[in-house]
């Protein structure tokens, strides 16, 4: 399957993010993080992690740090 090259690829390379990095995705509820993770997989990234609880879960747990 062929995908259109999106500006996301140039953003990743301009920030010197390569396939050797482990990428962690999180957001407010987990939905946007899933989309970002999908884009990363389309560009060949394999070392990816998703915190699907995201901010909604993290912010509700009193003992976790918030900066």
Automatic annotation (TrEMBL):
Domain Rhodanese per the UniProt entry, residue ranges: 9-67
SUPFAM superfamilies assigned: Rhodanese/Cell cycle control phosphatase
PROSITE patterns listed in its UniProt record: PROKAR_LIPOPROTEIN, RHODANESE_3
Listed Pfam families: Rhodanese
Domain of life: Bacteria
GO molecular function: thiosulfate-cyanide sulfurtransferase activity
Transmembrane spans: 21-45
Keywords: Membrane, Repeat, Transferase, Transmembrane, Transmembrane helix
Protein's recorded name: Thiosulfate sulfurtransferase SseA
